[in-house]
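W.,

You were right to be curious about this one. When I first looked at the sequence I had no strong expectations either way, so I just let the prediction run and decided to look at it fresh. Below is the sequence, 235 residues in total, followed by the output.
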Amino acid sequence: MAIHIESKKEDIADVVIMCGDPLRAKYISENYLDEYKMVNSVRNMLGFTGYYKGKRITIFSHGMGIPSIGIYAYELYQFYDVKKIIRLGTCGSLKSTVDIKDVILSTSAYSISTFPLLFGGDRDKEYYASKSLNDDIMDTAERLGIPLKVGKIITADVFDPYAFDQENFKSCFPEDNYLASEMEAFGLFYLAHKMNREAACLITVVDSKHDKRAMTSDERQKSLNEMITIALETL
């Protein structure tokens, strides 16, 4: 029995798009799905199931950080037989060649989190997205004419702009080999690996160590809509 999801098993599709913000899940459902209905509201972690071009899809929020996405992704995989999850989110660029507004498709996520150790006794620091799902996403983005930056990312337990000792933060992560920093993909990729499911992560760059510009609300919305479209068209 799922503890944090109140949905009936038949209320959840076998493919899910996850995003941190519950209101973003609501936005996607209201603007992209037909015949959608709310299927979860426990702790206001909203979930909706509906149809996109005839395909049944669930949109589910996951909150912030590995522990939060770990709870919801695990319960979706374990109790609702979900086969594929695509996470949509935001990130900070770690490289001068990765610009604000770029959309990144993660091939892997590196972290020093103890989540795999505590969950399953595993000690690896890097876990990979599902290659077949990533290939489908890249094909879809190419068909839609939406450029992607494809590569490795890091998953941190601290929102890096708030890290008081930036040198210590950088010493924990191999910045030169990784495109961006976010806070959830590592947990999702680990669970998919552990449970023999599929997972992918699309993220938009909203801040950068190399560029002090701030995205406008219109720019954020456009980038969000591009990610949403790629994920929906892929599934």
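Here's what jumped out at me. Residues 107 and 151 are 5 Å apart (CA to CA). And, maybe more interesting for your project: The domain at 9-234 is CATH 3.40.50.1580 (Rossmann fold).

Coffee later to discuss?

I.
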